[in-house]
Task: structure prediction
Amino acid sequence: MALLELDSLHRHFGGVHAVDGIDLCLERGELRALIGPNGCGKSTLFNLITGALRPTSGRIRINERDIAGLPAHRIARLGVGRKFQVTSVFDELSVADNLRVAQGPRAALPIDALLTRLHLSERRDVPAGVLSHGERQWVEIGMVLAADPKLLLLDEPTAGMTSPETAATVDLIRDIAATGDVTVLVIEHDIGFLERLDCAVTVMAKGKILRTGSFVDVRADAEVRALYFGNAA
Result:
């Protein structure tokens, strides 16, 4: 059954059609990557799903409920969580306390289990401000998970990471999706990350969906290569 459905979704800024008739369906527990050149509408799409922007027209459904136009806090309560590209953690608080602050009253995952999933058990009492960049990103992913989302939106989660941190983040995201409890949609530009993530990829261009398929199929598409990957085979 579909967790997220976008039906003929539009968002116009004057004469600019930032999102131009998007149709997209994600099943419960699905992991999907969203790629495309800068300015193609990816972040605008996330803003529409989370309620930061209202659509010009079209429908957004979560668990078959139309949420288009609802305020952001109500959409969050329906289980939509978003991690932004720039980390926003409480530097003075420990890793565990950052997760406790974000945890909802009906938390499905105990703090210890969440720390284990994030590979941060040994860092639980360390102030977030002294963590590496990658560790801070994992804490923020954990803060979103602590609120027990049904849809997790990740905006460039590996930006600025080292290669080992990127590889660990791939494992973390795949682990989150493997539970079947969370549908994950990831914006990313790192081609190596996308290849390792090994999931369906949706390509956006000029506010529209250009292609959807496996990473291998998408990368082999001549139009996508010219637009996004360059002309290398």
User: Anything to note?
Assistant: Residues 30-55+70-229 form a domain with the Rossmann fold fold (CATH 3.40.50.300). The first strand starts at residue 2 and ends at 13.
